[in-house]
Amino acid sequence: MSFENKLVALVNKEIEVGVAMNAIAHMTIGLGTQLSDETLRLNDYQDKDGNIYPNISQMPFMVLRGKSSEIRKAVGQAKEEKMQFSVFTNTMTGGTYQEQLDNTLKTPEEQLVYYGAILFGPWDLVSQITKRFSLYK
Q: Whole-angstrom Cα distance, residue 66 to residue 45?
């Protein structure tokens, strides 16, 4: 089965695994609110006993890794192409959520450390933007 769109997480390879998982969780929630169930191709799975496992996407969700600067560049390309994306930076951790909002607001973009980004868009375009990233292991 081929897919029109591609969903890819880009994670900073220099951050700890727990921080990376937190970033992916926040970004996925953020991106999910931008897209419809249909667009994400969500299905409910049911086991033999009748238990329902709701809203699982049919699409593969690749997790790749790279440097903060590479993620910044990929986000810039996604913006240029008007793709859907979500980002998580170093200013979005520590303290209260209000402190995180304030820290982000007072930090110039070039000083942000990108912990990750999630891109969603046409399969070939997302592939082109992310081709230099390696698989997250």
A: 33
